[in-house]
Amino acid sequence: MNGPLLWLSCLWCVAAGAQERYAFTRPQMGTEFRVILYADSDSLAQTAAGAAFDTLDALNARLSDYDAQSELSRLSELDSGAVVKVSRPLWEVVQQGEALSVLSQGAFGLTIGPLSKLWRRAFRQQQFPDLKQIEEARMRVGYESIQVLPGLRLQVLRPGIKLDAGGIAKGFAVDAMTEVLLAHGIQSSLVDGGGDIRVTSPPPDAPGWAIQVQQTDSLGQFQSVTLHLAHRAIATSGDHYRYLSWEGQRYSHIIDPRTGLGVQHGAQVTVLCSDCATADALASAISVMGPDADWGGLLRAYPGCEGWVVRKLE
User: Fold this and answer.
1) What is the signed CA dihedral for 184, 279, 105, 159, rounded to 10 degrees?
2) What CA–CA distance (Å, rounded) separates 100 from 302?
3) pLDDT 10s digit of each residue in the chain, 314 long?
């Protein structure tokens, strides 16, 4: 394995018939990934979790825009018109991302890299970016800059593109890790990548995995609700933890590719789907579209998905 596997069996393990509960964590993709699973032996739990985290590390090496040598980053070196064969994970991420970009009319975009770089510096320095730099970066963004071709190929249609898969990569990794656990015979698991969660069969003697979410009731009041989920994925997008306050305005780390600015509505978006990559990307797209947009039409394009928005208190 490429990184430390933190085994929390002593803290999380409880008797459950023939199976026991195990929890593991590892930092990756700028957050902490957590795996909770039920297995009938320590060795199976450690082997399955280790394989899942190895998959996470491998995906990070392909999809990270922080790593200049990653497969995703190397696309920026290609000339306009160049066609390159890529790995299946990268191809699938770009294919899913481009499809959502079209359906959301540009609210979701993988080519947002120039803006991401600018705003990351702004968050580090707690300084609003120069408006001219924002506009220059925005002009280099557009989902039309890359085309998905059959045979695991991508065509770059604009030189020097810079992709950022942050709006989908964690969910994609959660899905891949879940599939690895299933391949190892783990039928009951929860994989959490910084709040992007996918669960399989419920824990023993439980109706489902207990996931706490925020909703509003019929009177518009906030309430905390516990969902009991099985074979579902859930993702939440919002600015609760990462934002820039500047001259009385609050700008989220979620960037609108169309304006070049961090979204300002402050609403929290939660999406439920069968897979985490779709839930993750849809939550990001709806956050950019905003709570007053007709995002219900976007959800209907993804059968089996549902979502809701919790507005901030004024």
Assistant:
1) -40
2) 10
3) 344 334 443 334 444 447 999 999 999 998 999 999 999 999 999 999 999 999 999 999 999 998 989 999 999 999 999 999 999 999 999 999 999 999 999 999 999 999 999 999 998 999 999 999 999 999 999 999 999 999 999 999 998 899 999 999 999 999 999 999 999 999 999 999 999 999 999 999 999 999 999 876 655 667 788 999 999 999 998 766 677 888 888 888 899 999 999 998 888 999 999 999 999 999 999 999 998 898 989 999 999 999 999 876 44
> Are 37 and 189 spatial neighbours (Cβ–Cβ below 8 Å)?
yes
Q: 110-141 burial string, b = 16+ CB within 10 Å, else e?
A: bbbbbbbebbeebeeeeebbeeeebeebbebb
CA distances from 297 to 78, 303, 305 (A): 36, 11, 11
Strand ranges, E, within 238-311 = 243-246, 249-252, 268-273, 306-310
Residue 31 Cα distances to 161, 181, 274, 284, angstroms: 25, 20, 22, 17
Is pTM beyond 0.85? Reply is yes
**Residues in CB range of 220: below 8 A, 6 or more apart:** none
Say which residues have a Cβ less than 8 Å from residue 207's Cβ, sequence separation at least 6.
228
Residue with token string 């039309």:
144
Q: Which of 126, 127, 105 is nearest to 257 (CA)?
A: 105
